[in-house]
Amino acid sequence: MENIREKIVIIEADEASRTSLAAIMEGGGYEVCAFSTPHEGLDTLQHAGADLLLLDIDLCAADMLNIQEILATIRGSGFTAAVRVIVLVCPGANNRALGLDLGADDAVSRPWEAKELLARARVQLRARRATQQLSEQMRVAVEGQQIAHTAFDAVAVTERMASNAESLDKRLKIGFAAIFAAVVAMAGIYFLFARTAQKDLKNTTMTIARLEGGVLHQQSLIADARKLHEQLGDQTSFDPSGKGELQKQAQDLKAKMANAGSDQAATLQKQLEDTNARLRRIEQDGDSAQKLIRDDVQSVVLLHISVAFRNQQNGQRLRYSGLNQQGEPLQDSDGNPMLTIGGNGPEVKVDIFGTGFPVGNSGRIVTNRHVAEPWWNNDELSQMATQGFLAEISSIHAYFPGDPRAFTGEIQEISKDTDLATMRIDIQDLKRPPLSIDSGKGAAVTGEPVVLMGYATGLAGILARTDESTAQQILTQSGGDVSRVLAELAHRDLIHPIITQGHIGDILPDKIVFDAQTTSGGSGGPLFNRQGKVIGVTYAILKGFGGSNFGIPIRFSEPLLAPSTASSQTHSAN
Prior knowledge:
The protein is of the alpha+beta class and 574 residues long. The protein is built from 17 helices and 19 strands. Mean pLDDT is 77; it is low at 59-64, 234-238 and 564-570. The chain folds into 3 domains: 7-112, 3-Layer(aba) Sandwich (Rossmann fold), CATH 3.40.50; 138-211; 290-561, Thrombin, subunit H, CATH 2.40.10. The longest helix has 51 residues, at 114-164. The protein has a 6-stranded antiparallel barrel.
């Protein structure tokens, strides 16, 4: 399953030229060894091996070594695998032709263009991989042929024994025939296994490539933040009640009704009545979000959970082979991230964002189970187990509004019955009031107003509430590292939950249905009633804002908060 970086050896006398060549190849994601003399380069090829050689022909003449002899040495039996060779020659078609005549796979004239030289290197490496694949197929075919020969030899021996032993029992003959059939079946199983193993390896690599997320793609994140900024407006003008959006919705419905047919008019009229009813309730409630829970904002926590992957056979973490100058994973010639099991590269991680809130004075945080265990009910993360990797928590960090620190946390309790969990956060000297909860039957009433707090849309949502130049500056300074981005946001006091307001639509035995807007990242956020007490925990993950959302009644968290509950230390995917 290990994806090894392809290795390039450079033999170039001129130091400046040698440094430039090394930088070009390293920028392409390859492992590079550069030498000033042929002796050093050939010694490395002999003992450490390489996939491609960049060779300066002028250097070989000056060093009194014939280029043809060097190429003959490289192609000789002392090298475990064929090495592709690109020679660097002085300007002129004749020099390129001479390099090819001497046995090189390609020839490039000075001065070379970096992109063209890198492209030529990729072509040679692709050709080498194709050759190796063909050789492997031939090896498998030869082994299969040997198995077949063994089977036929067994048949020949059987026939000779049968001809020389007239009294041989018929059952013995049947036994020899069974042996022959078993040998043929083994040959078929061998070929099937080899083919299946190659297919499984390819599928696993593709899955890991989709899951990689430890390094941010800056431009994509900026684009998401820009889109959210347009939806929400800036932080000061954001309307938690959604009144402006409902007013616009009502205007759109009126415009549609003016041109609607008789079959649509009744449906549109009903939608307009429901929208106007929601507007009247919001106007009656006034500014309850600001009046009731102004102090509670400081206690709503942004949770950052990093998920890593451990190999089930040897227990080592999955890692990137390395990062390029932009802080992104090195890629192979096919554009896939280069991964390895073990090694010293950065760990492959998936970054999960959620919301939590403190209950009690012991640093205990309530959130969702799918935040604390991101692989729970997640088909893609759970699929990793079938491919030999175990998802596990690498780190948990909590960020409180108004404090620049990242507080470490650990999972304490996981509910077996509902989508709830608790964490213990080392809050040090931080003083934040725990939220008041109301688990009584009358805490949630259909039609009553509710206020929701959470970090909906995660990191992009936080960046969306600052200007684009500041967001770009933060991402650039952090090098795309998630923890550094969050540290800078906390330092600038930019981490604050989004507040939305709505009403309870329905109350079911195990859930509260409400229309306050939320989306991914808001999971685990507290749902307040008009008295400012928490009555539920948001758990629905919906794509985009809006819709009917769901919360788990807060009473389901009481078993997790009981003093006798034992804490857990290790959590990973099964």
